[in-house]
Design goal:
Blueprint: E1 2-5, H1 7-29, H2 42-64, E2 69-72, H3 81-106, H4 108-122, H5 129-148
Antiparallel strand pairs: 1-2
Amino acid sequence: MKIKYNAEIIAGAVFVIAATVLWLLIPSQIQTLEKTAINAQTFPRIAIGGMLIFSAGLLIQGIFFNEKKELVITKESFHSDGFKREMRSVIFAVMLLAYCVLVTFLGFIISTAILVVAILLFYGARKWYYYVIPLAMVGIVYYVFGVVLRISLP
């Protein structure tokens, strides 16, 4: 099967839609009583506005300047190195989504420790100090924010 696609159009359209939805959600998600020009909604509006502008630029670039690429899908393409690399990226993204869910149930320390160990196992880390350093950083972050600054972590 042959598929013709333009990655810039797809990515630009997806992120224009995402930025628009996020922009519209800002007032309901970040409520503020301040009437000044700079308030709690300022930085999110700047970041999402930049995302919207650059996504629209990518979409325009894809529409006017780039040729469509052709992808031929066969049985052999599922066993190629490129497909395996893409699947590793998909699995990594699923791990991050699972982390977002785990944080709400298990809290910051346990879920972050599980994520660190899972990522290191996934990428085949063999040395013990590859595990100790990020786990120690989780403890340090908890100590600084939770104990010293008294900021509650999820």
